[in-house]
Amino acid sequence: MSFDRPFRGSAAIEAGVLTRGQLRGPGFRRLFDDVYVSASVPVDLALRSRGAHLLVAGTGGVLSGYSAAEVLGSSCAGADAPAEVTLPGGCLLRQPGLRVHRGLLDPGEVTRVAGLGVTTRLRAGYDLARLAASLVEAVVAVDALATADRRAPGGAFEPADVLRLRNRYLGVRGSRRLPEVVALADPLAQSPMETRTRLALVLHGLPPPVSQFEVRGAGHCHYLDLAYPRYKVAIEYDGGGHRTPQQARRDLERQHRLSLLDWTVVRPRGTTVLHWPRVVAVDVCRELERAAERLGLPMIPASVALWQ
Questions:
Q1: How far apart, in whole angstroms, are the C-alpha atoms of residue 74 and residue 160?
Q2: pLDDT value at position 257?
Q3: 214 with 288: CB under 8 angstroms?
Q4: More exposed terminus of the chain, fewer Cβ within 10 Å: N or C?
Q5: Which pairing describes strands 83-87 and 98-102: parallel, antiparallel, or unpaired?
Q6: What H or E segment, with its residue span, contains residue 12?
Q7: Domain made up of 192-307: CATH architecture
């Protein structure tokens, strides 16, 4: 029995590999009732989700919401997010660190990934579009789960497909915001922070930028996270992978090549995107104004709310 993955404490005791005293000691961490893991294993949403799946085994329950997104390879929640499961309506289960949704799922809304029962991408996107804590996080989830790769685990979908489920489940909590979520979604987004950056612009009055815009020149091809091509202004979010010396050097070389092609690149910080999105919009708007003056173009339309 491996202790590096969630396991049933009662099964370990019955097999004689652990005692109750050992389970209660410093070597193990309790995730849920009778579900444990070695204390040396870092606990994140993926691990809690595996523990939750073990907890609901035999109930007809499956991982859903952010847990489903995690298992499907579309992580879009914080590491401290609770595990999520959907159980048949008659099941009663309450656990710290576990969010329980109750109701019957259509068989076509359930799949299996790595031995775990999870909702499909579309069902997870539909649930999170309704129930995420904010409009921004709802769009982040739909962007993360929708994909053009039809081989993706859990089935690819177009954001508009979410509205089909709304029509199937009329009157369900959170359904009223689904059209707005779908209108703001963009499955070309490459990361949750890229979606948050795009929404920082759109929700503060700027026109939607183009995602994954291709720029060719000087023997190179670059894909920009977000771009206003006519004004040659790009917006790129650099995550943790861009902090190594090697990647930083490649980023500088890339930025130099783009500048030779007359592109301006705005790189907002993560904390600014998360906590002061209006600042991101103001900074980009100023660069667009400079570009308009430099290139002799009309000012790009932007909401006066940026300056209030």
A1: 18
A2: 82
A3: no
A4: C
A5: parallel
A6: helix 9-14
A7: 3-Layer(aba) Sandwich (3.40)
The Cα 56–Cα 93 span in angstroms is 9
Cα dihedral sign for 90, 91, 96, 97? negative
Contact 129, 178 (CB under 8 A): yes
Token pair of 6, please? 């969630």
The answer to whether the CB of 93 falls within 8 A of the CB of 56 is: yes
* Contact between 236 and 225 (Cβ < 8 Å): yes
**Dihedral of the alpha carbons of 100, 104, 106, 111, in degrees to the nearest 10:** 40
DSSP 287: H
Q: What is the pLDDT of residue 240?
A: 54
The SS3 of residue 186 is coil
What's the one-letter identity of residue 70? E
d(CA 49, CA 37): 12
What is the residue type of 191?
S
Side by side, the strands of the sheet bearing 264-266 are 210-217, 220-228, 233-235, 264-266
**pLDDT average per 10 residues of sequence, the chain (308 residues):** 91 94 95 96 95 92 96 89 88 84 91 94 96 96 85 84 93 94 94 96 95 83 91 85 62 77 91 95 94 91 57
Instruction: Classify strands 28-32 and 264-266 as parallel, antiparallel or unpaired.
Output: unpaired
Spatial contact of 155 and 109, defined as CB atoms under 8 Å apart: no
What residue ranges do the domains of the chain occupy?
Answer: 42-184, 192-307
* Ordered strands of the 28-32 beta sheet: 7-8, 35-38, 28-32
Non-local (6+) Cβ contacts of 136 within 8 A are 195, 196, 199, 203
Could you give the C-alpha distances from 204 to 137, 220, 297, in angstroms and in order? 16, 33, 22
User: Tokens at residue 11, please?
Assistant: 């099964």
Residue 150 CA to residue 212 CA, distance in Å, equals: 19
